[in-house]
Every structure is written in structure tokens, then in C-alpha cells.
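User: Structure please.
Assistant: Input sequence and predicted structure:
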Amino acid sequence: MGTCMLIPPKGIKINNMTALFEETFRLDASDLHLTANMPPMYRVKGKLEPLKDHVAYTSSEIEDLMDDILTDRYRQVLKSRRSVDFAVSIDDVGRFRIAAYYQRGSLSVVCRMLAAGIPTFESLGLPQSLARLPYIRDGLVLVTGVTGSGKSTTLATIIHEINANFAHNIITIEDPIEYVHQNNQSIINQRELHSDVPSFAEALRDSLRADPDVILVGEMRDLETMGTAIMAAETGHLVFSTLHSRDCVSTLNRLVGAFPAGEQAQIRQQLASTLKAVISQRLIPNVSNTGRIPAVEIMFSTPGISNLIRQGKDDMIYSTIETGVHEGMITMEQCLVKLVKEGKISVETALSAAKNKTLMKQRLQVGLKDEIEPESSKKKTWFKR
């Protein structure tokens, strides 16, 4: 019997993370995925595509790649918790948020490329009414949406505007730190989970003793963090945070529902007086399918909405948002119709993104000429200093 020779697989194989990051930049991809028995996968214009002519990685090869960028601390967290989130900066390429985790015994990695610098509201394509958020004195502001919907970028833009215009002490608690802020008019202290503090709840408690004006909590993951954030907003601080929820009304339901039944009436009272805004966003393909743009639902806490929150009449909040255009509010359906009429997204995209496709069809047919006004004509009377 002749000797059996193994034939090496044809194709390229990149053996360091810096080169993979450079490829992410070259392809103008938003994400890089590394999974055992697969070639590198890049999300380009919202769609996953394999790196051309690249062979599949083994699990051990992915672990070797990660050794290039893992610090001893994050390597320890990955070993003990089987997952870790952190961020790295690559010279002449950019900054990346990394999520590494084990699945079926193999290491998988997702790398999100972050925007160079901190964008403006205009460059993000966000409604002009959101530009008032940095000028709120105190209270709670929530930015919600699924993973990858741009919540962290929106919050970074808000913090950047506060830093540029006010002399505040700003404390952020992040997992990981995605956008690095430089002290400007304000002092900014950015604390990272696992590196600077063991938990959101502990970091939030610590921050209240550090004379803060503004606190950013990367995510309200547990009951203690939620309760402390609401209390901080109630005692005169401006608190920003995120939740994974679909829209403004479900955000309220999730926040209140996280507390025991006996505490929910009190939480509603606190939210009625402290909640200033909920922004629910998602990224959808643009009309030419060359990128993604934000579709945003906005709720500002007017006296009417505060009363509905206090009374538990959440089912009436949607219609109040819908009729609150002059206050800068907009529902997701109104936003989608507006984007279609402006030629920014297709009808098919609007229908697929809508919660109620039948209602969306009706609204597209009617035209909504008077329902959505230009941003320039909206009254800007809220939250002035």
C-alpha cells in the first residue's frame, strides 16, 4: 500500500488579527466573524460574506489569533466566564469592539468596527429633535434597540455634545469602552467592566459618591442597576442608559415588569417624574442597498405621557407619540413612511421593518402629508436651560 499524502487546502490564510482588521477596513465592513470550520465572514452592507479564497479556521487557530489582542485580565475573564467583551485600537485602521465566546466547545469571535472619531447627529442621520438631549438638566434617558442598532454610537454623540458645551463631571460605565472621549469643557471618567470595576451596579453606586453631573450606564442588565439608575435620576443627576427592547412602549413594560409586583406602582411614580425620553432605533438598508440608515421612534415625557405612565395606561402612549409631532416625537411607522417619502428607503424595506404591515400599507397609500412635518418647523420648547 502506498503512502497516503495529505494535500494542503488551497487558498489563503491570514494568521494575525491586525491583518484581519485591515481587511475589515478595506472591505468597508461593519463586522468580522470568526467561527471554527468557517473562513472569516464579513458583514458588508448588512449581509454576511466569506473572505474570498480564504480557507476555514480551526478552533485552535482562532484561539491563536485571539492571543494577539487579549490582555492577561481579559484572558482570565474568558477562561472563567467563557465569554468576554473588550475593545482594541489598531494604528492606521481604527477601533474595534470584540465579543469572544465559546460555543460547542469552540471559540467564536465577533469584531465590530467603530466609527472613526465621534459622529454628529447630522452625520448619523438622526432626527433633529434628538439634538435637545444634551441640554436636559436631570432625569433618565433611555436608548433602546436590538444588538447592533447603534445605541452606543448615539449615546457617544450625546456625551460628546455635553462635553463640548458644559462644564460637567461625566462618569461612564461601559462594557467595553467603545468611544474614547477626551476632556473638553467637562471632565470625563470612563470606567470599563472587568478592567476598572466588577459590575454595572457596583460602578453605579460608586459613581454617586464621585460628585457626578452626568452618568452613562452602558446597559441596565439587572434589577439593582435599574433601581439605582432611577434613584440617581430622581436625586438630580442626568442618567443615560440602554435596554434591549423593540419600541418605546415595550421599554416601559420591560422596565416596570422587572420589579416585583408590589413595587411596580412606586416605580411608575418614579418614572413618571424622572423619565425624560426614550429613543428606540434600528438600522435598515438604504434605498440603493449600499449601507444602512437609522429608523427611530422617539418619545419625550410630556405631562400627558407622564400621567399615562403613572396610571399604567401604556396602551395609550403609542397614540400620544403619534400625535406629538410638534413636540419632536415620532413613531417607528411614521419614521418609516417619512424615509420612504424622502427616497431614503424602499417600500419593501419599510414594510419588512414595520410592526404592523397592514397599517404601514395604508399609511403609504394615504401619504401622511400633514402628519409628519419638517424638523425645522417643530416647536423647540422642551428642556431649555
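The chain has 14 helices and 13 strands.
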